[in-house]
Design goal:
Elements: H1 19-24, H2 33-49, H3 60-79, H4 84-110, H5 116-143
């Protein structure tokens, strides 16, 4: 992008305050609120699916867990890339995985695998992740 000095990274993350320190710091994605929320969702999905029927271990349990884990994983991978285009691409994948998780939670509830409290709690966490993910995606796209 224009305006960047030679040798400086050209990404949304690099242009934020304290960018030099963050670029050198390992696991800087742990400071992202969107990652924290997505990580919380993945952990919650793993906890809840422990009680799913055994015959679902290779079915909905596996699918729901993989989709839930894909959200924070793609945030981490995208944030670790060099440019805004790549970051936006991985955030888009995270958002698609969130949609998959929402449907699988709905489906699991219809099968009777979730209590009302679990279902509502997961929906609320999904909504929070979605809002945060969309806001972060919009910021990245605006600076692209």
């Amino acid at each position: 992008m224009g305006g960047q000095a030679a040798g400086q990274p050209d990404s949304w993350a690099a242009r934020q305050p304290g960018a030099v320190g963050r670029l050198l710091e390992k696991e800087r994605w742990k400071k992202l609120n969107v990652w924290k929320l997505a990580d919380k969702l993945a952990l919650r999905v793993y906890e809840v699916t422990r009680r799913f029927p055994r015959d679902e271990v290779y079915g909905i349990t596996s699918q729901l867990r993989r989709a839930a884990l894909s959200i924070p994983t793609n945030i981490v991978e995208g944030y670790s890339r060099k440019g805004d285009k790549e970051l936006a691409h991985f955030l888009s994948i995270s958002f698609a995985s969130l949609s998959e998780v929402k449907y699988l939670i709905y489906f699991s509830d219809n099968l009777g695998y979730l209590s009302e409290e679990e279902y509502q709690g997961l929906k609320e966490v999904c909504d929070n992740v979605g809002r945060s993910l969309w806001a972060f995606y919009a910021k990245v796209k605006a600076s692209d």
